């Protein structure tokens, strides 16, 4: 259920999105170009600073509002993936940084003067097994020296700062493998060309994702966030918000697919009548609508728990899984309803279809969510 605040914010987001029609996204997609104008518009409207507390220059709004913003962006055919990290990645600094770090960075992130879009956790060898990462940070006097490689570091070329997870104590010297990992806030403006190299990866969607190489990158010791060795916990605490917000984007995608499909099948006449009159065409759309509505309830449950400061691990995981499956079902129904025209770029269906598929894999794949539910909710033995 939308509140008065979320209804109002959705209206202003929808208005802003009106300036970025399908043709805008088609061009960006074709050229694999970053939607700078769209990101600037969201930044200027203060929407990306909604979660930053007022004392640090943000709007101090709850996650429910951030969820509404991202849902509406996607429901209007746009894509928040170019900048959603600016909304929630700062949570690592907010929750675990020092007051000096909060004061130095958060107000500038709130205005957009500093872009914190890059979140470097995944590595090519470790994959989902995050505690097996091999990027290291070695303390040398008042610096850390970073060596290693990250993959799928999205938006790195469009970011001033990076949240980096690296190993500070080798695995064989810690009791648990989740220990000995640390989080750093890296100033990319100084790092690129001085030990950090970014290489874009061309992907199925326009996602500005990259691989990042660290070759003796030296960063000041005060780049460390929180305590050395506790980084894995810090990363985990941010993941619930991320999953809930990605689920919100999926709900937005599902709304777009269902509306686009319905509009099309009402108008398109084959055999002398609208194709939407056929149950074979109606049912997949109706089913995906029901799936999305159910997933939305789980998103709401998750953000209500989150905003109340309660544990929402299971709900955040479940809502991400259910919403990503609902948006995919809606995408399938929409594409199928469009027949051949679903493949034509100008209808936007094929683009949204490709885009929404990502969320069954990133930021965490469905299998790992099912493993989480099995282990933590059903008390079954850990499978990995
Ligand atoms: C476009 C894009 C953008 C991304 N952006 C970022 C980013 O900004 N920052 C970042 O750090 N990462 C990012 N990622 C990485 C993303 O989070 C990972 O791709 C995702 O978590 C899956 O990890 P993996 O690719 O290493 O797959 P793997 O871990 O290799 O897994 C491959 C497959 O095997 C399955 N699998 C693995 N282990 C098990 C198991 N024990 N049981 C059952 N199934 C299993 C998985 O479910 C998956 O389907 C991005 C990825 C993509 C594609």
What would a concise description of this structure say?
This protein has 384 residues and is an alpha+beta fold.
Description:
This protein has 384 residues and is an alpha+beta fold. 48% of the residues lie in helices and 14% in strands. A four-stranded mixed sheet has the order 1-4-5-8. Strands 2-3-7-6 form a four-stranded antiparallel sheet, with no helix packed on it. A two-stranded antiparallel ribbon has the order 9-10. Helix 1 packs parallel to helix 4. The longest helix has 37 residues, at 231-267. The chain starts with a helix and ends in a 7-residue tail after the last helix. Residues 119-122, 127-128, 152-154, 203, 207, 209, 358, 361-365, 367-368, 371, 384 line the site of flavin-adenine dinucleotide.
